[in-house]
Every structure is written in C-alpha cells, then in structure tokens.
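Protocol step 4 of 5: obtain the predicted structure for the target chain.
Materials: sequence only (see below). No template structures provided, no constraints applied. The aim of this step is simply to have a reference model before the mutagenesis design in step 5. Sequence pasted as it appears in the construct record:
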Amino acid sequence: MGKPTDQDEGPARFEILFTEGAEQDLREIHAWLSDTTSPKQADRLALQISETIARLAHFPHRGSQPPELVDLGIHRYRQTLVKPWRLIYQVNDQQVIILLIADTRRDLTSLLTRRLLRS
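Step 4 output (structure tokens):
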C-alpha cells in the first residue's frame, strides 16, 4: 500500500492509505484526462479527488455501500463520488484504505468483485 496522504485540515482521525491498484487508477485517469482534454483539467480532477479523500480522514463512514457489492452480500466496502469517478474504500480500525477509483458509467460488478476480493 502507498504512503498516507498529507492532511491540510489538522490532525486526522483516520490514516489514509492507497493500494497499488488505486494509485495506478489515479495515474491512469490523470494521463487519460490530460490526453483527451487538457493537463489543467486533469490537475483539477486530481485536486477534487485529493480533497474528497482528505475529508474521508475525518468522516470515513459518510460514504454509501456500493450497490453492486451489496447485491453480492458484501457489506464491508464504502464509496464516495467525484463525478464521474467512484472511489471505493474500506475502513479498518483507524485507517481508510482506498482500493479502487473507476468511472461510474462502467458496469463495475466484475471489476469490483475481482479487485476487491483480491485485497
């Protein structure tokens, strides 16, 4: 897992960690958006995602459960949105682990199942 993110909002109650897969998702999204729109737009999205993740350090249970996983009887994961991107994470003790960042417009059932069941 990746290093914790820096928090600008004072001491966080929960430590934020990224899996390698989530770090790769973020890099790929940034590269794709830079190529298809502009680097400025990609940077803006990266900032929005970073701000959303920073809020999870203070309010990790605010996100909803991904319906695709609930339908499979899996209730330990949560999600938050930075449209059109969905951030899937798990809360463990005092940690928030970012597992996946994916486009909400995709059929995510198999992607979520494969990625999350491996972690």
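Step 4 remarks: The chain has four helices and four strands. The mean pLDDT is 87.
Proceed to step 5.
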